[in-house]
Amino acid sequence: MMYDRKAINNKLTVMMLVKNEAHRYLKMVLDDVCDYADEVVIWDDGSDDETPAICASYKKVVRLGRTAASGFGVDETAPRYSLYQLTLSTQPDWILALDADEVFEDRFKQDVRNMINQTQIDWYGFRFYHFWNSITHYRTDKLWAPVQYGPRLYRHIKGARYVWTKQELHGGSIPLNVYHAFPGANSDIRIKHFGYAGSLEEIRRKYEFYTGRDPVSQYCPRSHYDSMLDPNPVLELWVEHLED
Questions:
Q1: Burial letters 83-115, b for 16+ CB under 10 A, else e
Q2: Is 0.85 topped by the overall pTM?
């Protein structure tokens, strides 16, 4: 099927699911996002801290939805689909699904307009770097080495069919069929993931949460969970890639 695709003046909307992010990386992420996004849409999944107030303080946050009961670890698709529907209400041209502990390297700001203002590509995947116990070093060993993830930035095409599937844990950030149904490309631009950049105690709590919610490793191999507690992870210093 042929769809209309704009080549210029496309609007970039960032959608973000948050929960109790006030004392983590939320301000850093929103400060960065607001440098390149046209609009930001946020769904708060049952926060009981200052997260909603922080989000509301940013002028580019044009929608802020909330639910009292969290779906995290129970039905992750539900809040993400609520976020998606709220995002569609803003009439986006392109959607970037970003978590509250993820930041692009700086050159994304210079390249993103060329990425979205064209008619050939409908999605981009990016390489993820998992920062470990710090915001300066990322992990390179075992299952934590930098890897190319699927689409996070994609064109929302009016009239196209997008499919979501229910998943309790480790649910996807975007519609399931974007990767297979539309033409895309993998970018060499990197995403810094700070989900494991906190203390060793925080990492252990994440381990206990995931293994408690997924005791038979239905959604992730047990070896991956267990590697979170490796006492000697291999780390590498982050070096920003500069434009020529």
A1: bbebbbebebbbbbbbbbbbbbbeebeeebeeb
A2: yes
